[in-house]
Amino acid sequence: MLAAVLRRRAGRLGAMTEPSFTPALFAFLDDLAGNNDRAWFAAHKARYEAEVREPALDFIDAFAPRLAELAPGLVADSRKAGGSLFRIHRDTRFAKDKTPYKTHTGVQFRHGGAEGAHSPCLYLHLEPGNVFAAAGTWLPDPPALALIRDRIVAKPAEWKRAAKAATDGGFALGGDALKRAPAGYDPDHPLIADLRRKSFIAIRELTEADVCVPELCAALTAVWRPTVPLVRFLCAASDLPA
What we know:
By secondary structure, the chain is α+β, with helices and mostly antiparallel strands. Helices cover 46% and strands 12% of the residues. The chain contains ten helices and five strands, in the order ααααβββααβαβααα. The protein has a five-stranded antiparallel beta sheet with strand order 1-2-3-5-4. The longest helix is centred in the first third of the chain and has 26 residues, at 45-70. The two termini are 26 Å apart.
């Protein structure tokens, strides 16, 4: 399997002469939003491959050396399934909305030493009118969440430096939070607003034009660099190499 991935990577990179993303990606997703059914998607699958999935896989491959520089513990995996690119199909088993496809594309560089989409990561969201870069841990499971909170209590200065670096870099800390202090934590703790967080994620809004540039990898390296201390803090909380 690894050999096949490497062959595809070499072939794609050898042929790359265009930006990783173009307005065609957003045009396809916009059309999909208005025609979200299996028959339409089947008729336009070749367009999805050419305008969305292959450019995203090209980007994952091209960004791998930059990722190794920013956060060596995170992985750029360009497999078509099970890698850094989220699948286009929605899980509708327990959803009221039964439309079969997502109308956005997501690329997640998650930690190689953790399982699932809720590990420390860098994330890029591509959707018409809603483009953003993110970094951190989204809805960690209870044991991981407790480890993060405990590290904030144990190393408040380190946490504040990491959060400040992200916000100074144009990111905002987001995600849902508890209304009250979590059990076992002092309601009067000076960082109680952070201890109430359910996610430790930093988000920076971008535009479609921001990601339709030839220098995309360099541009996103600069965008994500201020979040490196946050990613390192979250990795350290779970005893993961950053």
